[in-house]
Amino acid sequence: xxxxxxxxxxxxxxxxxxxxxxxxxxxxxxxxxxxxxxxxxxxxxxxxxxxxxxxxxxxxxxxxxxxxxxxxxxxxxxxxxxxxxxxxxxxxxxxxxxxxxxxxxxxxxxxxxxxxxxxxxxxxxxxxxxxxxxxxxxxxxxxxxxxxxxxxxxxxxxxxxxxxxxxxxxxxxxxxxxxxxxxxxxxxxxxxxxxxxxxxxxxxxxxxxxxxxxxxxxxxxxxxxxxxxxxxxxxxxxxxxxxxxxxxxxxxxxxxxxxxxxxxxxxxxxxxxxxxxxxxxxxxxxxxxxxxxxxxxxxxxxxxxxxxxxxxxxxxxxxxxxxxxxxxxxxxxxxxxxxxxxxxxxxxxxxxxxxxxxxxxxxxxxxxxxxxxxxxxxxxxxxxxxxxxxxxxxxxxxxxxxxxxxxxxxxxxxxxxxxxxxxxxxxxxxxxxxxxxxxxxxxxxxxxx
Length: 449
Hints:
Blueprint: H1 9-43, H2 49-66, H3 70-76, H4 81-84, H5 93-112, H6 119-137, H7 148-179, H8 197-233, H9 235-238, H10 248-264, H11 271-281, H12 290-309, H13 315-332, H14 337-354, H15 356-365, H16 373-393, H17 399-414, H18 420-448
Helix pairs in contact: 1-2, 1-5, 1-8, 1-14, 1-15, 1-17, 2-8, 2-14, 3-8, 5-6, 5-18, 6-7, 6-18, 7-16, 7-17, 8-14, 8-16, 10-11, 10-12, 10-13, 11-12, 12-13, 16-17
Membrane topology: Multi-pass membrane protein
Catalytic activity: phosphate(in) + H(+)(in) = phosphate(out) + H(+)(out)
Protein name: Phosphate transporter
């Protein structure tokens, strides 16, 4: 599949397939992640299901439009530069099929069993698998071809956020119980009774906040995946940001500024490739396609990112590396408006069709007693805060893990007890997702490539 030439019939067919895969994956993402945002408001009958998912979809769209793209490209940078933009300019079909095929299959499998699994984990595992498969394809040492620093940074955020969700949601529930004496907040919903107006308003507010924050974080992941598709398959049109202000000579100046930093710290794997890219950008006689320039920019970004992570680098050197990276990124990291809208639409439509299984699990499966409005509100308030914070700091987190761990925390705080069978299923999915998706994606990429 690496032999597909740009604009060939095979490339166009692959483009259509990958576009379908990425849209279906985001559609399935709506089953899992966005369903968490509407679970409480639907379970307590504060809003009708159709109204809830439409409102959540609108808030997701707003979050996607206002949330930036830092999370999107934090995931993209998990891939080696030569996978993002193959040096020969061929479409990155094996990477896209391995990525979307693996993540989609795992998402659908866990959804079928009603397990709130993390689409973020699926995506990150598949990305790591592609990077590892690329190492085997080129017979390179894993320690010198996979950006473990970037991977560690992303995984650390995924690991810490559920723990914060558990403890902070438990504390938030205790504070609500101590300050608000409204009995309706602490009574599981009844099929015959309408929710109290205060309860209804509170849960609509928390649903709104989680939906918006989900769009600002998970919606960005969707943007990153769609951009991977269009850049990987039509690099001539989308490899470089058409709105960027830096021309080739200006890129060469920035590249030369990065040379002494990258050259000094030679224990990192990206140094030789980054230095070669600096030479190419600085050679005015060297003709380069947009895809090749993009590849060179990513090689340099990998090099300066390693400088920033090197404990031997001084504070001034790290600051200079960060500045150079900030000036280079807008050339290759961008998202057209239509990509943001497509991301939000896929998430919203998926929520409308597949929310029921996850809503039932969150409402009735995590605790030994059914979820109360106060528990739902506490978990969603904390979840919205954590997700929004991560979205604006450029760290990807799992909406599913934060909300489910928050619900579990409120169950413990209320003395309701936890359903260990359901929790065991969620924990099993949490533990096995990364190894499974890494393995499948690495094998699939290697075989296809």
